[in-house]
Amino acid sequence: MTLGDVLSFAFTALARHRRRSLFSVIGMTVGVASVIVLTALGEGAQRYVTDEFSSLGSELLIVIPGKNETTGGVLGGGIGGVPNDLTLDDARALERGIPGVSFVVPIVIGNETVSHRERRRQLMVVGATHDFLATRELRMGTGQFLPPDDFERGAPVAVVGSKAAAELFQHENPLGGVLRIGDWRMRAIGVLEAKGHQIGMDIDDIVIIPVASAMRLFDRSSLFRILIRLDSHSDLEAAKAKTLAILTERHDEEDVTVISQESVVESLSKILNVLTLAVAGIGAISLSVAGLGVMNLMLVSVSERTGEVGLLKALGAKRRQVQALFLAEAVLLALAGGLLGIALGFVLVEIFTVFYPKFPATPPVWAIFSALAVAVGMGSIFGVLPARRATDLDPVTALSGR
């Protein structure tokens, strides 16, 4: 019995039971497609986050008030509290004391009602300096950015995100328009070029004012962050150590956390890798369920074809040949479902990217081959029991149909 005979027999048997075969193929297709889609989303999330942080450059240090003993912290402050404020004087000391520094940008963030005439919005207000534009790699749409004043000068000026400007000023020219931010009156001097979200901040829907003005507006003495941009030839680790040394000397204790863009990207990549594998495991569970469906179909097929099995054995077919016939059916079902699942998965991912074009969802190569291998493997494993049951049938009993 040749391989062609085995495949011909399997195709003929599956064609006789089209409906049952179709349902088994659908089950396997859904399982494989779920693996493709889930891993594509996980891989896309990893690439999206990595690209977002990498867009700021690898020469960036972030100083966070409070000591965090766990590396890679991004959003939260120190676990043990904040015994000393992170001040504008600290930012100036870092600007003077770190070799190879390009910019030091103190940051204050809060939410406040921003209005222009009768129109008002609740917006994120960012207190920063002139160098915030270059540090976050933003561009101006119209007008100018914050003036290059000293940290303590709080000029009553504001730069508005493109979306916020469109909603507050509508058909008016924003430049020179008066904004009321809380109880403060400020003049709009520029509108940012549309950027979208960047590291958890909607650049199009913010207002940027001088950091000193923001500290007075929100009645704060401590900064939210200090961003340090180094030149491309600087030693990042040396600058990180120098930053800690300067602030430890000023605060009489090490009460800040200094992280780099590279460490943030590395930590997030590890987390997202684990999540991608986890969702792939969830998809593999659905493949197992589909494999059980294949087994049930083959068990029913064996029970309905006892006469056929008996005839084959009576004609001299060996046990392994009979087993190969039924195992081939299970593998063909799994292979068909796997290939269709890969196609369906790619279609669903493409549909997703149409609605979310900025999200780089792409099925990883390893997931494609793994899903297909697992599908065929499941078909083989769950096809063994029905195949063995077929070979155990007695030829005389099978021919009698009992």
Short description:
54% of the residues lie in helices and 18% in strands.
Low-confidence stretches are 69-81
- Overall 3D shape: elongated
For the termini, the CA-CA separation is 26 Å
* Helix content, binned percent: 40-55%
Multimeric status of the protein: single chain
Strand order of the largest sheet: 2-3-10-5-7-6
- Structural class, from secondary structure content? alpha+beta
**What letter string, H or E per element, gives the SSE order?**
HHEHEEHEEHEEEEEHEHEHHHHH
What does this protein structure show overall?
- With 402 residues, the chain is an alpha+beta fold.
- The protein has two domains: 3-52 and 266-400, no CATH class; 84-254, no CATH class.
- 54% of the residues lie in helices and 18% in strands.
- The protein has twelve helices and twelve strands.
- The protein has helices at 3-16, 18-54, 88-97, 132-135, 162-169, 211-217, 236-251, 261-304, 306-314, 319-355, 365-391, 395-400; strands at 60-65, 101-116, 119-128, 140-143, 157-160, 178-181, 184-192, 197-198, 201-202, 206-210, 225-230, 256-260.
- Strands 2-3-10-5-7-6 form a six-stranded mixed beta barrel. It has a two-stranded antiparallel sheet with strand order 8-9.
- α2 packs across α10 (319-355), α2 (18-54) runs antiparallel to α11 and α10 runs antiparallel to α11.
- The protein is elongated and about 90 Å long.
- The model is unreliable at 69-81 (pLDDT under 50).
